[in-house]
Write a structure and sequence with these properties.
The protein is of the alpha/beta class. It has 10 helices and 11 strands. The protein has 2 domains: about 230 residues, Alpha-Beta Complex (Spore Coat Polysaccharide Biosynthesis Protein SpsA, Chain A); about 80 residues.
């Protein structure tokens, strides 16, 4: 097998476990005229979150045809999520499948989702998210009305504990929303809430780039490639998923690390299409970090939230300065898991 940056290459011995609710062979509707859909969830040692995600799926309403396959791809070689899947019973007509992808990294897990799916439509959301009851129906309806290659929906944060006051002005857990039917670009893309078709996968090059397996950003690059190749990306504001935010993600160090990695990823994606931007972006990042650092202490006189926003800009600028380092496989992290 060739060594493509898009291939997961799990190996012939990788276990694939069908749940007791599923049958072997083709999924419902695979050969019929009505569309069928796969819902893919990548998970890594989040049993409680995975159970909440599945509970949300079983509560889906308004789906015109109950031809849905749910694939849980466990990125833990020990198969820690199997017990959760085994105790679940999907709605009548649905299939629930469980697959272990032992090669660590979110790109490998997402590529395994693509490889295991047998349908033209694939919906992704994460194991720390819970879809609202009309989520899947809204995605399907918007795709049908728009002919989009991918339909994205909003991710709403739900905090495990009361967040600190400075988070009111922090952008780490706030994402933009758009009117349904609006065209969006790759900057608004994510696999945390999306319905996509096989055409988009082909336009994106066939899969998620494994060089981003442990850093994150593999989904943004995936959709950036597809968009440049002509993919139509549309927003559906009714297709809501709720993201559970634990206390660990309400710490300042987590917020700043997120901004730092985001700065690195921003440059790395752009470098895929313009190799000469490393130095200009590093200089831009240095200027941004310097200006934000100068504004940091005056911002404290306004509010802690204002100061945190400036600190995020400092971290993001430093990330842009060091993106070339993160992109070097000899220096970057080469194995491990990314938990976004």
């Amino acid at each position: 097998m060739s060594s493509s940056p898009f291939q997961s290459q799990p190996g012939a011995h990788t276990p694939v476990i069908e749940s007791s609710q599923s049958g072997m062979g083709h999924e419902p509707g695979a050969g019929g005229s009505e569309p069928s859909v796969t819902v893919a969830i990548c998970t890594f040692r989040r049993p409680e979150g995975l159970q909440r995600a599945l509970d949300g799926l079983w509560r889906q309403t308004g789906i015109p045809v109950a031809k849905v396959t749910v694939i849980v791809v466990d990125n833990d070689p020990a198969g820690s999520a199997r017990a959760v899947v085994d105790r679940n019973r999907p709605p009548p007509g649905w299939i629930l499948r469980y697959v272990i992808e032992p090669q660590p990294g979110v790109s490998h897990a997402r590529n395994r989702c693509l490889a295991e799916s047998r349908t033209d439509l694939i919906a992704f959301f994460d194991d720390d998210e819970v879809p609202e009851p009309g989520w899947l129906a809204a995605l399907l309806e918007t795709r049908k009305a728009s002919g989009a290659d991918a339909v994205f929906g909003p991710v709403i944060s739900r905090f495990e504990t009361r967040p600190p006051s400075w988070m009111a002005g922090c952008t780490a857990h706030r994402r933009p929303r758009h009117p349904t039917g609006s065209m969006v670009n790759w900057k608004n893309s994510r696999t945390g809430n999306v319905l996509l078709g096989r055409r988009l996968v082909a336009l994106a090059g066939g899969g998620f780039d494994v060089r981003f397996a442990t850093s994150g950003g593999e989904d943004a690059l995936f959709f950036a490639r597809a968009e440049r190749a002509g993919a139509k990306l549309i927003w559906c504001d009714e297709a809501v998923v709720v993201e559970d935010v634990p206390a660990t993600r309400m710490r300042l160090i987590w917020v700043l690390e997120r901004s730092y990695k985001g700065g690195q990823t921003w440059v790395r994606i752009r470098a895929e299409f313009s190799r000469g931007i490393w130095l200009p972006m590093a200089l831009r990042g240095a200027a941004s970090a310097l200006l934000a650092a100068i504004a940091l202490f005056p911002a404290l006189l306004i509010s802690r939230g204002a100061a945190v926003r400036q600190a995020q800009r400092v971290a993001g600028g430093l990330g842009k300065m060091t993106a070339w380092w993160a992109a070097n496989p000899e220096r970057g992290v080469r194995a491990g898991h990314y938990v976004g």
